[in-house]
Amino acid sequence: MSTPPKTSDNFIEELIAEDLANGKHGGRIHTRFPPEPNGYLHIGHAKAVVINFEIAKKFGGTTNLRMDDTNPSTEETQFVDNIQNDIKWLGYTWVGDTRYASDYFDELYQLALRLIDKGLAYVDDSTAAEIEAQKGDIGVPGTNSPFRDRSPAENRRLFEGMKAGEFTDGSKVLRAKIDMAHPNLLLRDPVLYRIKHEAHHRTGDTWCIYPLYDFAHGQSDSIEQITHSLCSLEFRHHRDLYNWLIEALEIFPSRQIEFARMNVDYFITSKRKLKLLIEEGVVDGWDDPRMSTLAGLRRKGFPAEAIRNFCIDTGVTRRDNQQTLDLLEFKVREVMNRDADRYMAVLDPVKLVITNYPDGQTEQLDTENNPEDESRGTRALPFSRELYVERSDFRKEPQNRKYYRLAPGKDVRLKSAYIIHCEGHEEDEAGNVTQINCTYYPDSRSGEDTSGVKAKGTLHWVDAATATDLEVRLYEPLFTDPTPMDHPDRDFLEFINPNSLTVVTAKGEQALASAGVGESFQFLRQGYFTVDPDSTTDRPVFNLTVGLKSSFKG
């Protein structure tokens, strides 16, 4: 028996607490997450996953994972595998084995026969266009199908013939017999089964008829004795049919409760549109770091904890809501700032020569790994006469008095190293800076500074002799508009950001070459970066996960 928590954080929890107080289902709480395996899970699915698992956990209940695999045309085993991996990565475990709507095809078929025998379903020979026309419109009653009054015996015979493969695709469907004047258009004799001579990813060629979502979903809930079917607001109008089928079939009374979908700026969450991005070559696959898929966000480096926190902190509402990318990235920074070690990498390197440093000498300087966690210890940095610094950290002439980086006559500190004095620079015929020349104060070593020199700026750097080349992939949002789907008169592809991916060759600390796939680091003054699966020891690849601060104005 589940125990209600002392407080309810949202309306779903209030309704569940009310059911518990009334002794419904013997105080048992059982939810489910039922994705269709026709693509990868995205950030919107993450919200549904978190709601179902967290609410069940809060009430001491359990959650099923069930694949809504009733459409063999679009479903694949690879999608099933990925969905399971994503949920585990988010940190959740479902009760028992993964379930499938296809597990219940026999039972669903028998339930359909029960409706037929009760005179509550009939086989219709109308075409899809004719059925659509029969539905009428809001405030306009529909018209009965000419096949609506077939006898239960004839309907059973025809439905059995559909199952036996006697009819072609589209020639017949099974419809519920409800009310063609019902104010909810979904209850105007909805289609429950269609003929589809296609192999299923699990059942093969066993079946050539498949239930539609509205029939398979609710009845699967009842078969599994799901107490609370939590789904997104788009299914509100389906609830009337959900309840009608429960009553007509006299089966376990699951309760459907709807919550608002969560949308995030610069992301789209239509699987069809995500698939189109892949087909059009805009992105490299479902796990492209620019995608809204959980696989893409994981590859980019977003921690599962940050996504969970984002979904929880944005709450559960009855109205669709648009969340900012800033908030999601803030949640990512919170986790990564705590967990990521600090390393140095120069994204646009230019050589810096310390002219008074002994030629051929190298010393090891101590630097902290993570100032947020002293237990992470320190590491040694090699330091010698030639270094790399960021090109943007040098100006031929200072911009103003408050310019604290490199320029002729300026002093700056090199992180965990020495204070240097800029003497000048060298450039090519085109005027591009090729080398910065400096001197250093030997008694200004970090932690042992007795020079008396005051340097207001601190720069990151890497030792030229030991630096490793890094392929760094810099990401911006995939779209230039925060809501690319909110323009009905324009194709969402018109809003593709041409600068969504920029690849540069950076210079990084030598230790970064051996970082493992999925490891994340803060590159000082740059942002948080994560090792991509494309990475090798010969070609380390890092993805920009998130900047040190927000760069978006959406």
TrEMBL record:
Q: Which reaction equations make up its catalytic activity? A: tRNA(Gln) + L-glutamine + ATP = L-glutaminyl-tRNA(Gln) + AMP + diphosphate
Report domain tRNA synthetases class I (E and Q) anti-codon binding positions: 458-532
Q: Does the keyword Membrane apply?
A: no
Q: What is its EC number?
A: 6.1.1.18
- Asked whether the keyword GTP-binding is assigned, the reply is no
Q: Where is this region: Disordered?
A: 358-377
Per UniProt, residues of the Glutamyl/glutaminyl-tRNA synthetase class Ib anti-codon binding domain are: 340-440
Q: One Pfam family of this protein, by short name?
A: tRNA-synt_1c_C2
Q: List, for all copies, the residue spans of the domain called Glutamyl/glutaminyl-tRNA synthetase class Ib catalytic.
A: 29-337
Annotated family: Belongs to the class-I aminoacyl-tRNA synthetase family.
What is the protein name for this chain? Glutamine--tRNA ligase
Which organism does this sequence originate in? Neolewinella maritima
* Organism phylogeny: Bacteria, Pseudomonadati, Bacteroidota, Saprospiria, Saprospirales
